[in-house]
Amino acid sequence: MQTGLTPEIETKLRKALRSAGRREIGGMLFAEQLAPGKFRVVDLSVDRHSGSHASFRRDPTAHEQALKAFFDRTNRDFSRFNYLGEWHSHPSFSVRPSAEDVATMSELVTNERSAIAFAVLLIVRLRFRFWLDQSWTVFERGHSPRTPKPILRWI
Ligand SMILES: [Zn+2]
């Protein structure tokens, strides 16, 4: 699998991280599938109501609304535009997924009632107000978590 952020989304993410300061924020990742297994993030939701890392939680209603809005914008072309996963920031420590992050994502893809067979976790941290540290992990039912390859060229 290959993943990456478009330059527009990187800019949006930097702005959100700057205004959040030391507060942890996160949301959902929405992607366009460019080729089988090749996904670029074309939109993301920003949940501004989360607090510290320990208290970070998804807000199901807000996420439902963001998902619906994305599907409406992309004319319900689900095979091309779809939910890719989750993102959040680690403003004060390394972007490595925590044990809790791994457990939460594994539960998301292994839950019998969940329709999600795979999901990506992106953790970001802004350093020196500009440099964006990123860690990407793919969680897939029946597989160990792994790191996707970056998309180096957009064409
Ligand atoms: Zn985390």
Could you please describe the fold and organization of this structure?
- The chain is of the alpha/beta class.
- It has helices at 7-20, 60-73, 99-110, and strands spanning 2-5, 26-35, 38-44, 81-89, 118-127, 131-140, 149-150.
- The protein has a 7-stranded mixed sheet with strand order 6-5-4-2-3-1-7.
- Strand 5 and strand 6 form a beta hairpin.
- The longest helix has 14 residues, at 7-20.
- The model has no long low-confidence stretch (mean pLDDT 88).
- The structure holds zinc ion.
- Zinc ion binds at residues 53, 88, 90, 98, 101, 123.
Rg from alpha-carbon coordinates: 15 Å
The N- to C-terminal Cα distance equals: 17 Å
Q: Give the spatial strand order of the biggest sheet.
A: 6-5-4-2-3-1-7
- Residue ranges: pLDDT <50 for 5 or more in a row? none
Indicate the overall shape: globular
Reading the helices and strands in chain order gives EHEEHEHEEE
β-strand percent reads 25-35%
**Largest beta-sheet details:** 7 strands, mixed
Q: What is the SS-derived class? A: alpha/beta
Count of alpha/pi helices: 3
What is the helix fraction of residues, given as a range?
25-40%
Mean residue pLDDT:
88
Which small molecules are bound?
A: zinc ion
Spell out the blueprint of helices and strands.
Elements: E1 2-5, H1 7-20, E2 26-35, E3 38-44, H2 60-73, E4 81-89, H3 99-110, E5 118-127, E6 131-140, E7 149-150
Parallel strand pairs: 1-3, 1-7, 4-5
Antiparallel strand pairs: 2-3, 2-4, 5-6
Bound molecules: zinc ion.
